[in-house]
C-alpha cells in the first residue's frame, strides 16, 4: 500500500505540473494544445489521483 | 525489486510521458516537415469555419453522407485555422450549378481588406459536380490569431439570380 501511495503521489505531482504547463501554452497560443490533445483528461486524472490520496491518508 | 526502485521507475515513467506529450505537441505545431490535408464536408470542422454570412447561403443539408449548401448571394467567407506555419494552400471546391458559372476564390492578404482573388488553376467535371482547384502562397496571407480569411465569389449569383450548390472543400497545406 505504501508503494502504491508513493506512486500515486508522484503521479499527482506530475499531472498537476503537466496541466499547468499545458494550460499556459493554451493560454499563450490558442489551439497549441487543444487542436491535438484534450488536456482536461490530465486534470480529470489528477482529480482522481488526488481523491485516492485523500482516501488513503488514514493508512 | 524494492519499493524505492518501483517508486523511482514509476516517477521516471510519468515524467517521460509528460515530456513525450510536450514533444508531440511541439512537433505537431512547429514541425519543419510534412503537410496537412483537410476535408471540409460542410459539417463543423475545427480547422475550417462555417461558410458565412447565412443571409447568402443556406444551412448545410445532408443526404446520407453528402452535405450541400446553396449559395444564392455573393460573396461568401470562411476562415482557415493554420495549425502551424505552411507556405502553400491548395484548395479544391466541389460544386454544381445550372449554367457554367465563374467561381472565384480569394485569400485575405497582408494589406488588410485586400483579397488575392483567383480564377481556378484547374477545373474538372465529374458527372454533375465541378471541381475547381486554386492555390495560394500563404506567405502573403494576413494571419490573424492563426486564422486566414477566404472569400468565395460567383458574381453571376447576384447579377443573374443563379445559385451554386457547394458540396465539399479539400485543402492541402504544404511547407
What does this structure look like?
The complex is a heterodimer of chains A (about 60) and B (about 180). By secondary structure, chain A is an all-alpha fold. Chain A has one domain. Chain A contains 2 helices and no strands. Chain A has helices spanning about 1-30, 40-55. The longest helix of chain A is centred in the N-terminal third of the chain and has 27 residues, at about 1-30. The mean pLDDT of chain A is about 90. With about 180 residues, chain B is of the alpha+beta class. Chain B has 2 domains: about 1-30; about 35-175, Sandwich (Jelly Rolls), CATH 2.60.120. Chain B has 2 helices and 11 strands; from the N terminus they run αββββββββββαβ. Chain B has helices at about 5-30, 155-160, and strands spanning about 35-40, 60-65, 65-70, 75-80, 90-95, 105-110, 115-120, 120-125, 130-135, 145-155, 165-175. In chain B, strands 1, 2, 3, 5, 8, 9 and 11 form a 7-stranded antiparallel sheet that branches. In chain B, strand 6 and strand 7 form a beta hairpin. Chain B starts with a helix and ends with a strand. In chain B, about 20% of the residues are buried. The model of chain B has no long low-confidence stretch (mean pLDDT about 90). Chains A and B meet through helix 1 of A and helix 1 of B.
Amino acid at each position: 500500500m505504501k508503494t502504491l501511495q508513493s506512486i500515486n503521489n508522484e503521479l499527482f505531482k506530475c499531472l498537476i505540473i503537466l496541466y499547468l504547463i499545458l494550460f499556459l501554452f493554451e493560454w499563450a497560443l490558442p489551439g497549441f494544445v487543444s487542436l491535438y490533445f484534450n488536456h482536461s483528461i490530465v486534470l480529470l486524472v489528477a482529480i482522481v489521483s488526488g481523491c485516492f490520496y485523500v482516501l488513503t491518508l488514514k493508512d | 525489486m524494492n519499493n524505492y526502485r518501483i517508486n523511482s521507475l514509476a516517477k521516471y515513467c510519468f515524467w517521460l510521458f509528460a515530456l513525450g506529450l510536450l514533444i508531440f505537441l511541439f512537433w505537431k505545431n512547429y514541425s519543419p516537415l510534412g503537410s496537412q490535408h483537410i476535408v471540409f464536408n460542410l459539417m463543423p470542422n475545427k480547422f475550417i469555419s462555417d461558410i458565412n454570412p447565412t443571409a447568402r447561403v443556406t444551412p448545410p443539408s445532408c443526404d446520407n453522407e453528402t452535405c450541400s449548401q446553396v449559395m444564392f448571394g455573393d460573396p461568401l467567407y470562411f476562415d482557415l485555422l493554420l495549425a502551424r506555419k505552411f507556405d502553400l494552400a491548395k484548395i479544391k471546391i466541389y460544386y454544381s450549378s445550372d449554367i457554367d458559372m465563374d467561381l472565384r476564390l480569394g485569400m485575405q492578404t497582408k494589406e488588410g481588406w485586400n483579397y488575392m482573388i483567383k480564377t481556378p488553376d484547374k477545373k474538372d467535371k465529374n458527372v454533375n459536380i465541378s471541381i475547381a482547384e486554386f492555390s495560394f502562397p500563404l506567405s502573403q496571407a494576413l494571419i490573424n490569431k492563426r486564422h486566414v480569411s477566404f472569400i468565395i465569389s460567383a458574381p453571376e449569383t447576384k447579377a443573374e439570380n443563379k445559385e451554386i450548390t457547394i458540396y465539399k472543400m479539400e485543402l492541402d497545406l504544404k511547407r
